[in-house]
TrEMBL record:
SUPFAM superfamilies: TPR-like. Residues 12-170 form the PRP1 splicing factor N-terminal domain. Associated with the spliceosome. The keyword Ubl conjugation does not apply. This is PRP1 splicing factor N-terminal domain-containing protein. It comes from Cucurbitaria berberidis CBS 394.84.
Length: 929
């Protein structure tokens, strides 16, 4: 025991940390220095305890969670780092071309699978969002009906509403007010003394005021501010690369950002405040002093002095920057720019900068721009190329400064030899060469850059310009094979973009060849390709690239020759953006490929008729009868053609054959309508009776029969015909409407209401019947009843444009029409009837431009809605030009609209049956109210 040293004088054990056993670590209370040294981590603590236990020959303390490291763990850790592979994987396998191709194939497969599922996933997500919004409506939607009801509140009711008072803390506020009024304060003697001396003039200064502290020491305040500013600037200079911050105790400068700010100030012409300039100058000078090799800092400071109007100071600053940062290109560029008014000085600066940075292309370009003559520019450019022979920009500058075409070719030859991997140089070389030489140049370019698709495209364009259009397909076919071999094939969308560029620049054959060879690249061989190509053709034609769209559809037709959808899309493109001959050629190929397609035969016959060849249309229909015998649509189209041509006997014979071979209720209806137009009323009624014997539930035959009796002023027979029709076809709303109108015309308004009620029972939530009930009450001047029925109708059919239009135009005051129209559009979203209503409202308010815009929206939204064309033409009759009216009529004839209340009243009238679409629009415009 006597030999044992004192405990306090013993050396500390290895890796000993004071206070570690009780969990204590060092700390500090000074916030400006930050936290003290961090203590050891948990792993380090466990390792030290285990080492100490091993030195003492004891087991590791389990209380601290220290366990021995097993060899299995070590072996497992060996395989966690792919860069430290040993054993079986230590052969040093490299990532070769096959691995790259495999990764690319897996990536393309993933992209394709994602693209195939994207449409369905987006549709499902949209459906989920719609369901959520439907099940969880917003507050404003729940109270929309209550907000609308506020419009019917009278002024007296509004005035009778009580004022809402603020009852929050009323007692507390009253108590505080009373206490404030009852308080009194004693006036200090200093105030009284100051008041007594307020009128005196004292010019003496006491010598003891400074010591007493009653006077402000401005010198000490200024010194303190200067000291604080110095600390902040020094702190800013210590971090020159960080972003500028002027708040807090740390400030740093971003010279590039400040350069941008100064450029913006100069561009906008704004005057920079002097305070900002001084503040920025202090910051930038501090940044430059603390880091003398910061080139952007000198540039920023020089531009600051330039903005402040101190050009001489700016030159000195940038000169110092050139001395301290000789390798900074931006500093030399700024020095050249600031000395541009003296070309001699600028050249000296450029020469000095180039000596120190001979590889700086920007400095060489600046030096070239300083030269005034082409010879001097070429001399400097050649010197630049001696130091930078691989610079494409310098070669382009030298070639642009050369005027002789032969010298240009020689320069291009040298440039492509020096920089063989520049696509731009090769293509430009081919453009300045003649035909044979250009082909040789492009062949050498393909060998030099086998992965360049631009060279192949230019080769195809060259052949097209030479008139060898048949070679374009072969070139693009070879291009695709070569690029696939080199694994340099670009995406399908990029190929289509290049095709659009070629078409825009006039090389249509090249665009078609690109589409033909690449439009299917990356797509699976399934029916989804057809939808993708149709969408591509639609979007590309929308951008005005019709040849590219035509090529896409042509390729789609070759892959899907039996798809009527593709043929219709191709025919539609030719109809709107092609010629009549091209349209007829497409339709001829279409009916040959799809002889059983009724729609293609009808379209072919109609286009043949409209092109001015009625005999050809008859032949087309004859061929269609052979392919589709007994087809009623073909017979009715043939009848329409003969009626338009005035061959009524031929039309009757067609209908007679149709009634015998392809008897349908539509054929009988067409026959009755033709006899009615020819004023053979007895024959028309007989045909209706014959048809009703076979098809008693055909509501159109009942309607035609009743309308014929009504036209003959036989109202009793007409009422009986309509009544029988309502019992035979109770699901036809139009028969109930026609019957109610006959009863109203006879004066039986009560029966008319009953008929409409019966029709609503048979056809619940039918907008036409509800609207007719409203109109019946309105015609009887019973507006309250009409409004009541309309309220019920909108509850049953809230998305009916017909009901909203009736309500807005006939049941709302003029001042309430626009808000109601806005509410209806939000409710129904896209309905041409509402667009027409809005246009009519704007028309009545003399906002003609907006009205024309809404009329245009209506006809674009639904060209088949004829009333939109009618109202637009009526508007143009008052406020449009003859050219605009003619354009609207021609577009209406092309659209061939068939729906609309005003249109039906004219189209179904036998007096207007023989008129063209343009004449029917004019007649309907005169009847529109």
């Amino acid at each position: 025991m006597s030999g044992r040293r004192d405990f306090l004088s013993m050396p500390a054990p290895e890796n000993y940390v004071a206070g570690l056993g009780r969990g204590a670590t060092g700390f500090t209370t000074r916030s400006d220095l930050g936290p003290a040294r961090e203590g050891p981590s948990e792993e380090q603590m466990k390792e030290m305890l285990a080492k100490r236990a091993a030195s003492l020959g004891q087991a590791a303390p389990s209380a601290y969670g220290v366990t021995e490291k097993k060899e299995e763990d070590e072996e497992e850790d060996r395989f966690q780092d792919p860069d430290n592979e040993v054993g079986l994987f230590s052969s040093g396998m490299n990532y070769d071309k096959d691995d790259d191709e495999a990764d690319r194939i897996y990536q393309e497969v993933d992209e394709k699978m994602d693209k195939r599922r994207r449409a369905r996933r987006e549709a499902r997500e949209q459906q989920e969002r719609d369901d959520y919004e439907k099940n969880n409506p917003k507050i404003q939607l729940q109270f929309a009906d209550l907000k609308r009801a506020l419009g019917s509140v009278s002024e007296e009711e509004w005035a009778a509403l009580p004022e809402v008072g603020d009852m929050t803390g009323r007692a507390k506020r009253a108590r505080e007010a009373r206490m404030a009024n009852s308080r009194s304060y004693a006036v200090p003697d200093s105030v009284l003394q100051a008041a007594s001396k307020s009128g005196e003039l004292d010019t003496s200064i006491s010598s003891n005021d400074a010591d007493s502290g009653t006077m402000t020491n401005f010198a000490s305040i200024g010194a303190a501010q200067l000291s604080a500013l110095t600390v902040r600037l020094d702190s800013a200079a210590s971090n020159p690369g960080t972003q500028t911050t002027t708040s807090g105790t740390a400030t740093s400068v971003d010279p590039k950002g400040y350069i941008t700010a100064l450029d913006r100030k100069q561009a906008t012409g704004d005057e920079v405040p002097v305070e900002d300039i001084n503040r920025a100058r202090v910051l930038l000078e501090s940044a430059v002093k603390t880091n003398v090799h910061n080139g952007p800092g000198y540039v920023a400071l020089a531009r600051l002095e330039e903005v402040a109007g101190k050009i001489h100071t700016a030159k000195k600053v940038i000169q110092r920057g050139c001395e301290m940062c000789p390798k900074s290109i931006v500093v030399w560029e700024e020095a050249i720019r600031l000395n541009r008014e003296s070309i001699h000085n600028a050249k000296i600066i450029a020469a000095n900068g180039i000596k120190l940075n001979p590889k700086a292309i920007k400095l060489w370009q600046a030096a070239i721009d300083l030269e005034q003559t082409p010879a001097a520019r070429k001399k400097v450019t050649r010197q630049a190329l001696d130091h930078n022979p691989q610079s494409v920009e310098l070669w382009k500058t030298l070639i642009n400064d050369t005027e002789d075409i032969e010298n240009v070719k020689l320069l291009f030859a040298k440039a492509t030899e020096t920089v063989p991997l520049s696509e731009e140089l090769w293509i430009s070389y081919a453009r300045v060469s003649d035909a044979d030489a250009a082909q040789q140049v492009l062949n050498r370019a393909r060998k030099a850059i086998p992965t360049s698709w631009a060279i192949w495209v230019h080769a195809s364009r060259l052949q097209e310009e030479l008139g060898k259009i048949e070679l374009c397909d072969k070139i693009m076919e070879r291009a695709v094979k070569a690029l696939i071999k080199e694994n340099a094939m670009i995406k399908r969308e990029e190929w289509l973009a290049q095709a659009e560029i070629c078409e825009e620049e006039g090389d249509k054959a090249t665009a078609a060849s690109i589409v033909k060879r690449t439009v299917g690249w990356g797509l699976d061989e399934d029916d989804e390709r057809r939808d993708t190509w149709l969408e591509d053709a639609k979007s590309i034609s929308g951008r005005g690239r019709y040849e590219t769209a035509r090529a896409i559809l042509g390729h789609a037709v070759s892959i899907f020759p039996y798809s009527t959808t593709v043929w219709h899309a191709s025919a539609d493109l030719e109809k709107h953006h092609g010629t009549a001959d091209s349209l007829l050629r497409v339709l001829e190929h279409a009916v040959n490929a799809c002889p059983n397609s009724e729609s293609l035969w009808l379209l072919y016959a109609r286009e043949m008729w409209q092109s001015g060849d009625p005999e050809g249309a008859r032949k087309v229909l004859g061929r269609s009868f052979e392919q589709l015998p007994g087809n009623e649509n073909l017979y009715t189209r043939a009848v329409d053609f003969e009626v338009d041509a005035g061959n009524y006997e031929q039309a009757r014979s067609f209908l007679q054959v149709a009634r015998e071979s392809a008897a349908t209720d539509r054929i009988f209806m067409k026959s009755a309508v033709l006899e009615r137009q020819l004023e053979n009323y007895e024959a028309a009624i007989d045909i209706c009776n014959q048809g009703l014997q076979n098809w008693p539930g055909s509501w159109k035959l009942h309607a035609i029969k009743g309308q014929i009796y009504e036209q003959l002023s036989k109202l009793k027979e007409a009422q009986e015909a309509f009544s029988i029709g309502t019992r035979a076809a109770p699901k036809s709303p139009m028969l109930f409407i026609l019957l109610s109108r006959i009863q109203e015309k006879q004066g039986a308004v009560v029966k008319a209401r009953s008929t409409l009620d019966r029709g609503r029972q048979q056809n619940p939530k039918n907008a036409e019947l509800l609207c007719e009930a409203v109109r019946l009450e309105r015609r009887q001047n019973n507006v309250p009843a009409a409004q009541k029925i309309m309220a019920t109708a909108l509850q049953e059919c809230p998305n009916s444009g017909l009901l909203w239009a009736e309500k807005i135009m006939h049941l709302e005051s003029r001042t309430q029409r626009r808000p109601r129209a806005l509410e209806a559009i939000k409710k129904v979203e896209k309905d041409p009837q509402l667009f027409v209503v809005v246009a009519r409202i704007l028309w009545s308010e003399r906002k003609l431009d907006k009205a024309a815009s809404w009329f245009t929206k209506a006809i674009v939204l639904d060209p088949d809605y004829a009333d939109g064309w009618i109202w637009f033409y009526k508007f143009l009759e008052q406020h449009g030009t003859e050219e605009k009216k003619g354009e609207v009529l021609s577009k209406a004839a092309m659209a061939e609209p068939r729906h609309g209340e005003i249109w039906q009243s004219v189209a179904k009238n036998p007096k207007f049956a023989r008129l063209s679409v343009e004449e029917k629009v004019k007649s309907a415009a005169r009847l529109a109210e």
